[in-house]
């Protein structure tokens, strides 16, 4: 009786330890399938991917300490890791991201960044990984579209696909990513409009969409994103007017709308907001520079160049607390350039190519 009990007990312990002390064979197999689809010729980062336990010393892999399930894949082609210093070079990899990673159902972060040569699509099955918090594949040659049902990733905080060759549109479901804090789609070929319900991304603090092929208006709903501090929509083909509500956002500090087809006036709210980097250059913005500067106006950068602004530079601009870099060149401005401390350090290049501006620092007297 007692021996049977002990026998059963030891069997139970044995099976417990064998499930919980190493990564499950199925996850090891998924990682090996992932590795097989990639080719990394210079550093040998996959040399450590051997042995039964993928949780033990496999480069870039970490597991949950309790469940021994694979939790993180963290492979960066530009890093301070000794493996890079030894090789005296940054990483380079070709191949593609195998859909086998979708079998790692406890995956929390997937970072495959700056390998420059990885091509192929982001497997749509990615959106079935319920624990995924970070998806960072910046700096590769990925093609195809952002998975249509990406919005299912309710825990996703970081979505970074910048510097790839992603096409298609911003999926409508993206606005369902209620945990998303950091969205970086820069430098791809994403087309279509910014979804009207973009403002549902209530946790978003950085929205970086520059260098794509986005068209249509800037959705008014963006101004509902209370935590948004950095909005970069530059170098697209956005049109319509700048929503005045952008100037009333609580923490918006950087607003880059340069290099689009935006028309209409500059909302006065932008001038007396908390925005400190404002680039509206190279659009079709018209009307006057709002006479709305005051002590709240603190600009590291205010670039209004290459638009259709006319009239005078408003006198109130002298009341701004700080204007580090101002550029109003290539417009149709006229009249005397105001004097005052925010201006004293500016050079003529900030004011050239207007209709009839005069006074310091231009050589033309009034
Ligand atoms: C944009 O991405 C391409 C790769 O798709 C890269 O070669 C290029 O340097 C990137 N440009 C910028 C300005 O980041
Ligand atoms: C967003 O989530 C809601 C609620 O879960 C769902 O009804 C809707 O279909 C989702 N939208 C998209 C475009 O996936
Ligand atoms: C503003 O945007 C324009 C056009 O994209 C760019 O050339 C310029 O360098 C930007 N200005 C500043 C101060 O960064």
Walkthrough of the structure:
It holds the Pfam family LRRNT_2. InterPro entries: DNA_repair-toleration (IPR053211), Leu-rich_rpt (IPR001611), LRR_dom_sf (IPR032675), LRR_N_plant-typ (IPR013210). Its EC number is 3.5.1.98. Residues 1-22 form the signal peptide. Keywords: Hydrolase, Leucine-rich repeat, Repeat, Signal. This protein is an alpha/beta fold. The chain has a domain at 22-120: Ribonuclease Inhibitor (Leucine-rich repeat, LRR (right-handed beta-alpha superhelix)). The protein has four helices and 24 strands. It has a twelve-stranded mixed beta sheet with strand order 2-3-5-7-9-10-12-14-16-18-20-22, with no helix packed on it. Strands 11-13-15-17 form a four-stranded parallel beta sheet, with no helix packed on it. A hairpin with a 6-residue loop joins strand 2 (61-63) and strand 3 (70-76). The model is unreliable at 1-19 (pLDDT under 50).
């Amino acid at each position: 009786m007692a021996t049977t009990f002990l026998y059963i007990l030891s069997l139970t312990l044995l099976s417990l330890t064998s499930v919980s002390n190493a990564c499950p064979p199925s996850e090891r197999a998924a990682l090996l399938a992932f590795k097989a689809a990639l080719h990394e010729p210079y550093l040998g980062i996959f040399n450590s991917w051997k042995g039964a336990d993928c949780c033990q010393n496999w480069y870039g892999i970490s597991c949950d300490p309790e469940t021994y399930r694979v939790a993180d894949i963290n492979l960066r082609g530009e890093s301070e890791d000794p493996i890079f210093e030894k090789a005296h070079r940054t990483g380079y990899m070709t191949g593609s991201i195998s859909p086998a990673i979708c079998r790692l159902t406890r995956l929390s972060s997937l970072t495959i960044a700056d390998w420059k040569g990885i091509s192929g699509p982001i497997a749509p099955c990615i959106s079935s990984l319920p624990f995924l918090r970070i998806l960072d594949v910046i700096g590769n040659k990925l093609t195809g579209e952002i998975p249509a049902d990406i919005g299912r990733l309710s825990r996703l905080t970081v979505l970074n696909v910048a510097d790839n060759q992603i096409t298609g549109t911003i999926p409508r479901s993206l606005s369902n990513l209620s945990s998303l804090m950091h969205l970086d789609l820069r430098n791809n070929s994403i087309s279509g409009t910014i979804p009207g319900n973009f403002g549902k991304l209530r946790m978003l603090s950085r929205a970086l969409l520059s260098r794509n092929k986005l068209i249509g208006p800037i959705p008014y709903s963006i101004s509902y994103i209370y935590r948004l501090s950095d909005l970069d929509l530059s170098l697209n083909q956005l049109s319509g007017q700048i929503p005045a509500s952008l100037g009333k956002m609580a923490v918006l500090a950087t607003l880059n709308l340069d290099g689009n087809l935006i028309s209409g006036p500059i909302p006065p709210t932008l001038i007396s907001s908390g925005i400190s980097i404002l680039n509206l250059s190279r659009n079709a913005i018209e009307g006057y520079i709002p006479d709305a500067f005051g002590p709240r106006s603190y600009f590291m950068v205010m670039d209004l160049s290459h638009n259709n602004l006319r009239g005078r530079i408003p006198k109130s601009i002298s009341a701004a607390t700080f204007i580090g870099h101002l550029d109003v060149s290539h417009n149709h401005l006229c009249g005397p350039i105001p004097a005052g401390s925010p201006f004293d350090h500016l050079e003529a290049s900030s004011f050239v190519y207007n209709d009839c501006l005069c006074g310091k620092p231009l050589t033309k007297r009034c």
